[in-house]
Amino acid sequence: MIYFDHQSTTPVDPRVVEAMLPYFSGTYGNPSSHIHAQGVAAGEALDNARLSVASSIGAKPEEVIFTSGATEANNLAIKGFVEANADRGKHIIASAIEHYSVLAPLRSLQSRGFEVTYVGCDKYGMVDPVDVGKALKHDTAMITVQAANPEIGTIQRIQDIALFARKHDVYFHTDAAAASGIVPIDVDVLGVDSLTLSSHNMYGPKGVGALYLRTGNRLSCQIVGGMQESGYRSGTENLPGIVGMAKACDLAKAEASTRIELLKNLQIKLWDWLANNVEYLEFTGHPMYRIPGHVSFWVKFIEGESLLLMLNMKGIMCSSGSACSSNLRGHDEEDLAASHVLTAVGVPAEFCSGSLTVSMGKDNTEDEVDYMISALPSIIERLLAMSPLYADKLKGKDPYSK
Ligand code: PMP
Questions:
Q1: 371 burial class (0-12, 13-18, 19+ CB within 10 angstroms)?
Q2: Is 352 a catalytic site residue?
Q3: What is the DSSP secondary-structure string of 269-334?
Q4: Does the residue 6 lie in any domain?
Q5: Which domain holds residue 230?
Q6: 174 CB under 6 A from ligand 1?
Q7: Cut 0.90: pTM above it
Q8: The domain spanning residue 337 has which CATH number?
Q9: What is the pLDDT of residues 351-381, one digit of tens each?
Q10: Local structure of residue 21 (DSSP, 8 states)
Q11: Are residues 214 and 241 in the same domain?
Q12: Which of 152, 166, 180, 342 could form a disulfide with 201 if both were Cys (CB 3.0 to 4.6 A apart)?
């Protein structure tokens, strides 16, 4: 079996598991129990983990808030900011290709009287900072644009958008879940006010994430209770998970260059082969500014879901875009039925469920890419033979020529 779905989740690195193990039954104290040895040891482990996560993104430890994952971090950054800063205005700018964990809190704010301008992107999925500028209003409180897109792989010009936000004194949040552990991040170089990190995108455990919050910004707590995490997030910390995330950050930092080199090589190999050998193929996302190891495409006349299933039958696991959004497709909400990301980059609506995302990881090999390359021609040939759209094309009625 070949796993090419690292944007959905990654396996936990054995070194991460090893780092976590002592924090289940050995050091099991509550980090808030400052009075006894168990609590103190747990508190120290939490402090060290915070330091690791912070230093992996160039932040100060007190700027890291642990959460249950990227979804919660995005909710906290977005709802938390506007609730704590009611005087900063009721207008928000977001990209149209954000993850649902950004779009859903924005929708809920819209129902509470906030106005959201969704800025589009070009055919490569790139948001133009000039368009963000044009969307600015006198009462813009916040801009939120993701660092990288899990479905089409495009990495955004966060630095340019952040410069603009800072110039106009607008709070800028970026969801860096899809970039976690694979696209190097320095919060000062980026110039963001807040940034979401995901543990399970970088060989850490699921159910844990972090929000970076630049000193000087205020958020209102979304999960109220015991006011852990400097009052930003209540609930006893998931210490084994946090220690695991910290170890995953340490490893990502130490191994960044090797991982990136490997993933770029695998990416180029697959990309070049597809470009030269598969007729009717259209890549999605940016050809250069993309997540290392990420290749995404659709093939005219062929349904992406069928391609996905047939690859799976050959033991190759990929995804048709965002794993999270696949839960939403087919639900009553019509506007969630097709991928909003593919629609935004101009893939014809009738093929919006049709793209394939291959997201490779640090343990994938060239042999695995070769295997995929050897499996693809016969699969594509079979799917074309079964395709009514392709039959139409052979009869001279090409649906794409309209
Ligand atoms: N943002 C982005 C860009 C994502 O790809 C994901 C899913 N991996 C999330 C947020 C939400 O992550 P989680 O489901 O782990 O909370």
A1: middle
A2: no
A3: HHHHHHHHH-TTEEE-S-SSSB-TTEEEEEETTS-HHHHHHHHHHTTEE-BSS-TTGGGTTTSS-G
A4: no
A5: 14-254
A6: no
A7: yes
A8: 3.90.1150.10
A9: 655 789 999 999 999 999 999 999 999 999 9
A10: T
A11: yes
A12: 180
Decide whether any atom of ligand 1 lies within 6 Å of the 144 Cβ: no
Mean confidence (pLDDT) of the chain? 94
Per residue in 55-98, pLDDT (tens digit) is: 999 999 999 999 999 999 999 999 999 999 999 999 999 999 99
Q: Is 198 in the pocket of ligand 1 (CB under 6 A)?
A: yes
Number of domains, the chain: 2
The 3-state secondary structure of 141-162 reads EEEECCCECCCCCEECCHHHHH
* Residues contacting 367, CB < 8 A, separation 6+: none
User: 78, 324, 339, 359: which to mutate for ligand 1, most atoms within 8 A of CB?
Assistant: 324
Condensed to tens digits (0 to 9), the pLDDT of residues 195-221 reads 999 999 999 999 999 999 999 999 999
| Secondary structure (3-state) at 365 | coil
Same domain? 59 vs 181: yes
User: Which region, left, alpha or beta, applies to residue 69 given φ > 0 means left and ψ of -120 to 50 means alpha?
Assistant: left
Q: Which of 287, 378, 322, 352 shows the shortest CA–CA distance to 149?
A: 322
